């Protein structure tokens, strides 16, 4: 019977049996990898949701990290971190499986002390073991720390001092923390606790409280734009939180400057400083918020403003000595040292009023605040084209070099098209109420600061012609003309000078016909017939850093000294 049931070799039933096996193994070879991939993806998404839930509930500011981004050791299990997280406030680093243990075992930076603290002035060190910075030295034996390939040595998350395992003593654990090198920039948790208690008691005498911190105490507030320029803002926020009190660090995309600057009202009069990390547009946003503080009657709390340039042009930061762009070439600690060394100066701010022409025009005039420059012509056209394309695909414009390349492309295009030619026939220009005769121009630029177009000193120019340095605090505007996009390019590479029209306290420009591109501090728009009036608005208190001088600064300074000698 069994022999009868066996398929005869070569029979149709044997072929069907073999085909069935082939189909089964084919399905297994195809479906099994799909199932494994789906299962791994599901597990990964579950782990991600679980980790995000821990991040959301934790008091630490967790950020993802792995072995490839920075080789570190887990502060809980002391093993190499393959996939884990680090706190961008206290610097704690843990493996993914130790996140809950780390939350229970380690406390993050306290922005305020507990109310039951007996002695607010005596704050002990807050030590965390392992992952100390490179080139750090023990505060006891003065030898290098963190040299061994394991979790070793300690770091205080407030003063950033480090100590060896074998040098750590009970006396150090209870020693008072002096907040280290940046104690004059840090707002101590004890100060905020005392302020909170004073406000409950309806007292506002903050000067007495601040006197305990010394006359050199100038607390710093960080306002960073995480979307500026090369998208470095997010990383900078974490580095500043580690060095300062996290309550001093704000992301302006989440907390508007007007709200962040209310922290100044808890500080002594005229003591606060602000570091703006972003482009010229972010700086203007912060200065507008400072003006709003003046309107609210908070003049005594007005801070001095420094700039860490993250944008594309950065002409204002260059004028104030902070450089043409920050790309991480110097550590954040050095940036804080530069802020401490900076000197206070004034910056003129101007009101730009644009009134449209027409018999039935019932709209209010447009008003802008100018810090850098106003222009009509080819450079405004390049900015307008760039702005239009960046609005469509903002992710493609995260590189400073790429942004400048796009500007170059539109400048080359305008050299061939010349969309702004015969500008002198379309506009009338008045300086302090006197009309000025214009030659054949394509563009007019009104300057408040020394730099224009990403690092070019436009007013002083080059060659044997001696012109006084353009100042940003003299209440005067410098007005120049350009003959086209090619002329702008020649000026930027120091092969030509602009056509200098003059200086004035008030500038009035009348666009008689057609549509022309205009811009104020890099914010462009297309404008029809109108009248543009530029008048002085107010002063802003800025911080000038004299440690970084470009070749243009040195040559311009020497030229000015030569002029004084001849006089």
Automatic annotation (TrEMBL):
User: Which GO MF terms are attached to this record?
Assistant: ATP binding; ATP-dependent diacylglycerol kinase activity; zinc ion binding
**Which key words are in the record?**
ATP-binding, Cytoplasm, Kinase, Lipid metabolism, Membrane, Metal-binding, Nucleotide-binding, Repeat, Transferase, Transmembrane, Transmembrane helix, Zinc, Zinc-finger
Please list the residue ranges annotated as the Phorbol-ester/DAG-type domain.
Answer: 59-108, 124-177
Q: How does the entry describe its membrane topology?
A: Single-pass membrane protein
Q: Does the keyword Repeat apply?
A: yes
Per the record, GO CC terms? Answer: cytosol; glutamatergic synapse; membrane; nucleoplasm
Q: Which residues form the signal peptide?
A: none
Classification via Gene3D superfamilies:
2.60.200.40, 3.30.60.20, Probable inorganic polyphosphate/atp-NAD kinase, domain 1
A Pfam family hit: C1_1
Keyword ATP-binding attached = yes
Q: Which residues cross the membrane?
A: 22-42
Origin superkingdom = Eukaryota
**Top-level enzyme category:** transferase
Q: Where in the cell is it found?
A: Cytoplasm; Membrane
Q: Which reactions is this enzyme annotated as catalysing? A: 1-octadecanoyl-2-(9Z,12Z)-octadecadienoyl-sn-glycerol + ATP = 1-octadecanoyl-2-(9Z,12Z-octadecadienoyl)-sn-glycero-3-phosphate + ADP + H(+); 1,2-di-(9Z,12Z-octadecadienoyl)-sn-glycerol + ATP = 1,2-di-(9Z,12Z-octadecadienoyl)-sn-glycero-3-phosphate + ADP + H(+); 1-hexadecanoyl-2-(5Z,8Z,11Z,14Z-eicosatetraenoyl)-sn-glycerol + ATP = 1-hexadecanoyl-2-(5Z,8Z,11Z,14Z-eicosatetraenoyl)-sn-glycero-3-phosphate + ADP + H(+); a 1,2-diacyl-sn-glycerol + ATP = a 1,2-diacyl-sn-glycero-3-phosphate + ADP + H(+)
The record's Gene Ontology biological-process terms are: diacylglycerol metabolic process; lipid phosphorylation; modulation of chemical synaptic transmission; phosphatidic acid biosynthetic process; phosphatidylinositol biosynthetic process; phospholipase C-activating G protein-coupled receptor signaling pathway; platelet activation
> Briefly, what is this protein's role?
Membrane-bound diacylglycerol kinase that converts diacylglycerol/DAG into phosphatidic acid/phosphatidate/PA and regulates the respective levels of these two bioactive lipids. Thereby, acts as a central switch between the signaling pathways activated by these second messengers with different cellular targets and opposite effects in numerous biological processes. Also plays an important role in the biosynthesis of complex lipids.
Output this protein's name: Diacylglycerol kinase
């Amino acid at each position: 019977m069994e022999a009868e049931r066996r398929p005869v070799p070569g029979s149709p039933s044997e072929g069907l049996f073999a085909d069935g096996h082939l189909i089964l193994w084919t399905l297994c070879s195809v479906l099994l990898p799909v199932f494994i991939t789906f299962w791994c993806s599901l597990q990964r998404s579950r782990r991600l949701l679980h980790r995000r839930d821990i991040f959301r509930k934790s008091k630490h500011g967790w950020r993802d990290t792995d072995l490839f981004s920075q080789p570190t050791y887990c502060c809980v299990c002391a093993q190499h971190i393959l996939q884990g997280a680090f706190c961008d406030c206290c610097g704690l680093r843990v493996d993914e499986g130790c996140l809950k243990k780390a939350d229970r075992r380690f406390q993050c930076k306290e922005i305020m002390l507990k109310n039951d603290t007996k002695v607010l002035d005596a704050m002990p060190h807050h030590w965390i073991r392992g992952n100390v910075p490179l080139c750090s030295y023990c505060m006891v034996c003065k030898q290098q720390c963190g040299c061994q390939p394991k979790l070793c040595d300690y770091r205080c998350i407030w003063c950033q001092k480090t100590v060896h395992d074998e040098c750590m003593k009970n006396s150090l654990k209870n020693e008072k923390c002096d907040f280290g090198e940046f104690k004059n920039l840090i707002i101590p948790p004890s100060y905020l606790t005392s302020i909170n208690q004073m406000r409950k008691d309806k007292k506002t005498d903050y000067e007495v409280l601040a006197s305990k911190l010394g006359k050199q105490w100038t607390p710093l507030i960080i306002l960073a734009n995480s979307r500026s320029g090369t998208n470095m803002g997010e990383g900078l926020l974490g580095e500043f939180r580690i060095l300062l009190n996290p309550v001093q660090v704000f992301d302006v995309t989440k907390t508007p400057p007007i709200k962040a600057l209310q922290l100044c009202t808890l500080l002594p009069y005229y003591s606060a400083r602000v570091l703006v990390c972003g482009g010229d547009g972010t700086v203007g946003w912060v200065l507008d918020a400072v003006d709003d503080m003046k309107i609210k009657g908070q003049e005594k709390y007005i801070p001095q403003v420094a700039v860490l340039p993250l944008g594309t042009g950065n002409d204002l930061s260059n004028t104030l000595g902070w450089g043409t762009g920050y790309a991480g070439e110097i550590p954040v600690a050095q940036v804080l040292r530069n802020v401490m060394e900076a000197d206070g100066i004034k910056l003129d701010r101007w009101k730009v009023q644009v009134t449209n022409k027409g018999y039935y025009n019932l709209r209010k005039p447009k008003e802008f605040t100018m810090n850098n420059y106003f222009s009509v012509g080819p450079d405004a056209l390049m900015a307008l084209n760039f702005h239009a394309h960046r609005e469509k695909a903002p992710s493609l414009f995260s590189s400073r070099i790429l942004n400048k390349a796009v500007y170059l492309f539109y400048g080359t295009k305008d050299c061939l098209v010349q969309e702004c030619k015969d500008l002198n026939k379309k506009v009338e220009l008045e300086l302090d109420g006197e009309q000025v005769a214009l030659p054949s121009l394509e563009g007019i630029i009104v300057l408040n600061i020394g730099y224009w177009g990403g690092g070019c000193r436009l007013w002083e120019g080059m060659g044997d012609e001696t012109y006084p340095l353009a100042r940003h605090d003299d209440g005067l505007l410098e007005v120049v003309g350009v003959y086209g996009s090619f002329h702008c390019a020649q000026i930027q590479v120091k092969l030509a000078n602009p056509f200098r029209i003059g200086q004035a306290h008030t500038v009035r420009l009348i666009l008689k016909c057609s549509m022309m591109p205009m811009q104020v501090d890099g914010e462009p728009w297309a404008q029809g017939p109108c009248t543009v009036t530029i008048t002085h608005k107010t002063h802003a208190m800025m911080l000038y850093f004299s440690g970084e001088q470009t070749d243009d600064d040195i040559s311009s300074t020497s030229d000015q000294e030569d002029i004084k000698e001849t006089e």
